[in-house]
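Translate sequence into structure tokens.
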Amino acid sequence: MKKDTIMEVEHLHKRFTSKGVTVKAVTDVSFDVKEGETIGIVGESGCGKTTLGRCIVRAYQASEGKVMYRTAAGEEVDFLTVDKKKMKEIRKEIQMIFQDPYSSLDPRMTVLDIIKEPLKANFPDMPKSEMDDRAKAMAEKVGLNPAYLMRYPHAFSGGQRQRIGIARALIIEPRIIVCDEAVSALDVSIQAQVINLLEDLQKELGLTYLFISHDLSVVEHISDRVGVMYLGQMVEFADTEALFSHPMHPYTEALLSGVPVADPTVHIERIPLKGEIPNPANPPSGCYFHERCSYCTEKCVHEAPELKSMPDGRLCACHRAEELKLRGFTYSEE
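Result follows.
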């Protein structure tokens, strides 16, 4: 691993098998994460974004692959294969914020108990008074009124509940946080508040984010680099500015054409995709995207493209990546 790299995901696979049917949820995904940056992971619903995030934090056990992680002590370990004792040590450094702020909080616990639950799990000998003080300080840091911490989750709005989830994730001072659609269930105005909070916390605490979302406008705002997933595979991985201005994969181009612009006078040229997302239990031959791609050739039908490094340093899995001139996030006034 390079000095500035905190995590490397290497050839990660996740398969689910039920009643003799195997679904390839994540297939051969590889990328690196630099310390202090935000990696955005985007794609349509069902593309494997959430499964990837949960495999990285070991909420799901990956079928194959490695997640190499550099600990705070400087030790390089494969987080997916470490024993339970070592995993508990590292677990403090890798946390997750879940998508639904309503179902991710126990309705029978007070907010104070929810926030300090990770302290109980990881520091069982810590005095209760210290746990309470830490929980109140963290609640204040994320914009919650400490006077309300004895209330239950139902008394809080969606945005406040997500702040509770953020406080719970931060209470044990992690280094990496996987944000799984952390703002998708919130109103747009509340989304902006939570995103600004996440950015402020990142600067203050030196956090590294893996930000999973289907909202490309949010991802463009918050991410340093972006990975695009389709049917469980990473099809493009590039710096945010380069990916939005000059995509090299046809699927990325189609996604960018669907980014909404809050101006009724602006005309956006959409790129409609043909057909439906293929069945991950029975993916197509060759390139998984070929059935919906307007640039498809005979090679695309029969031969699967590799995720290769391009001249500008990005990764792209397309046979025609270097010859196609694709349209980025641009629009014209009517």
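Note: The first helix runs from residue 49 to 56.
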